[in-house]
Structure prediction request, 192 residues.
Amino acid sequence: MNTKKAVFTSLFAALICIGCVIAIPLPGGVPITVQNLFSILAGSILGSFFGGAAVLLWMLIGAVGIPVFANAHGGLAIILGPTGGYMWGYMLGSLFLGLTLGKPKLTENKKDVRFIIKIALLSLVAYAIVYLPGIPWFMHVMAGKGKPQTFQSALKLTFIPFIPGDLIKWIITIPLTAALRPVAARYLEPEE
Prediction:
């Protein structure tokens, strides 16, 4: 990884860290944050595996106890707790989007309808991927705490309340990705 890519990866990790400041608690114990927005943007803008690396860096920073997780918490116990699966989901969603969109290119046109549709569809899938490890892990941890959840109750606590916010974040992701990928390409991809 060259220096510029390391700086951009670190920058997105810092944005994800800052995202912990905005957290709206919900009854299920999984707060609404903007960390998934920054995680998905990391993958969509940086491309390749760098977005996933930014999320992993954020997780490592939090695992050692620095309060960068939702509600300004930190520590390995958070990753192993009920919301830990969502953190892995952030990384998987970011990685998926980075790999499917590929490296940012100077030639990408934010007015190209096909490009916008591609961003929209792939980022929607990336937001959905966050829940794939999140919901089962939540159920597993809650069962271990003597509070077993049915799949339906887990959906009511950890998925349904987040749909409106995630749709807003998804809508924000599309124009930001289209506008910032060519900018990132200027710095990340050496001229040939």
Notes: Residues 20 and 72 are 6 Å apart (CA to CA). The first helix runs from residue 3 to 18.
